[in-house]
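Handout, page 2. Input:
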Amino acid sequence: MSRDSVGKILLVAFSLCVVCSVMVSSTAVALKDKQQTNVAKDRKRNVLVAAGLVTPDQADVDVDAYFENIEARVYDLDTGKVADVKAADFDAEKALKAEPHAIPAGVPGGDKVKARSKQQVVYLVKTKEGALDAVVLPIQGLGLWSTLKGFLALEADLVTVRGLVYYDQKETPGLGGEVDNPIWRAQWPGKKLFDADGSYHFTVVKGPASGGDPHKADGISGATITCNGVDGMLRYWMSADGYGPVLENLGKGVKRDG
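Output:
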């Protein structure tokens, strides 16, 4: 066979593809456990950031040490009760694909979420004495270009926001992508999602919120659709079709002062 024949070239190309495929596959398998460990660590870190226990720029955080006072529980969102599932074994994305809960028409903010898993992990932040200090809730919803995934942390009164973090979003940089800007996130602690009667009463407004109203948050200039997504998903996740039953269950004996 000629050194420059078509057959020789194809044979070399095929052999190279096979070798590269084997190398890539082997590397992926070898790194799978490490990747999963890093994903779990990053998730824990974002829970800590939402709860105000660490700052986003804080390096070399021992997340496991902080999690000694955090209890992760899987809740059934329809009943608000703890499910018989270990949090370490639960994967919300797999649960969503396997058995999604279709959101009924007319549920506030439901158009920004579309569907959810029937169960979800909730993080209970405890004091050293074991009392409830904060609750961190996974949330997600539609922005302009992407599904925004994040964590909403509530104080023990289950009314007041402790923090809001979006760890996965592909919105326009400089516009909707500003949901990840520390300056925008800094306005959330102290905001109140419910009024004194326990009814949801909060809005992400277009432009700056006037007078420091605790029931309003500043929008982002030029990112109306993304902000509408944030507003809608908060309305949904705090509704009776979202975390409402879980909050009601957790709130027994807790004074909800809106």
